[in-house]
Amino acid sequence: MTRQAGLIGLGAAAALVAGIGIYFAARPSTTGPCLPRSRNEILDRARAQGVINCYRGALTSRSSWQYVADGGEVMVRFLGAGGSSNAGVFRINYRASATRKAGAMARVIHEVFAHPRVALAPAGVFP
């Protein structure tokens, strides 16, 4: 009788653990919306082309901004110098696993702006 009760208890515990696992796997993300309030033409185009899936970030000053794509795999910063909308430097930082994404992001920047200054940081170097 005690062996049977132990097996029933073990089965109930396993069902509880499985239920909790399913709950956490199926619940929606709590990290917030994929797209930020301040949208960015470059990152919207990269998302439309399938280069990235998601991005977050915002303006950091009147002439500079910073966005992080795909959970931190790629960071795109614009350090403005005033004047026209592309008078400044685009800086792309990326993880080693996202080298192709960083290169594709640089190509998207060249599609949006005529003669941008784009700097690719070495893989894994973040500010």
Q: How would you explain this protein's 3D organization?
A:
The chain is of the alpha+beta class and 127 residues long. The chain folds into 2 domains: 1-30; 41-120, no CATH class. Helices cover 37% and strands 23% of the residues. It has a 5-stranded mixed β-sheet with strand order 1-2-3-4-5, covered by helices on one side. A hairpin with a 4-residue loop joins strand 2 (64-69) and strand 3 (74-80). Helix 2 crosses helix 3 (99-112). The longest helix has 25 residues, at 2-26. The termini are far apart.
Short description:
With 127 residues, the protein is an alpha+beta fold. Helices cover 37% and strands 23% of the residues. The chain has a five-stranded mixed beta sheet with strand order 1-2-3-4-5, with helices on one face.
What order do the helices and strands come in, and which of them pair?
Elements: H1 2-26, H2 41-48, E1 55-59, E2 64-69, E3 74-80, E4 88-94, H3 99-112, E5 117-120
Parallel strand pairs: 4-5
Antiparallel strand pairs: 1-2, 2-3, 3-4
Helix pairs in contact: 2-3
Kindly give the count of domains. 2
Q: Sheet bearing the most strands, described?
A: 5 strands, mixed
How would you state the average pLDDT, rounded?
A: 79
Helix content: 25-40%
From the helix content, strand content and strand pairing, which structural class follows? alpha+beta
Following the backbone from N to C, one meets helices and strands in this order, namely HHEEEEHE
Total helix count? 3
How many E strands? 5
Distance between the termini: 64 Å
Overall geometry = elongated
Radius of gyration: 22 Å
The largest beta-sheet arranges its strands as 1-2-3-4-5
Our estimate of the beta-strand percent is 15-25%
Task: Provide the low-confidence segments as ranges.
Answer: 26-30
